[in-house]
Amino acid sequence: MVISRNYTSTGVTLIELLVVLSIITIVLGMSVSIFRSFGEAQTLEVAASGVSTTVRAARNWSITSGMPSRVLVDPDRRRVSAFGFETVAAWDFEDLDGIAEGSPLQVGKSISGAFRETAQVTGHIEVCKGSIGSAALFVNDGAAMHARYLPRYNMKRGLSAEAWVRFWQPPWQSEDGVEPHGGYSDPRREMKLAVIGIPGSFEMGLLADGAAYLEIGDPDSAIDGIFFRAQTEGALVFPDRWVHLRVTFDGIDVVIEIDGVEHYWIPDGFEMVDPQDWPITRGEVPTGDGDLWISHPNR
Question: Is the pLDDT of residue 222 over 70?
Answer without folding.
Answer: no
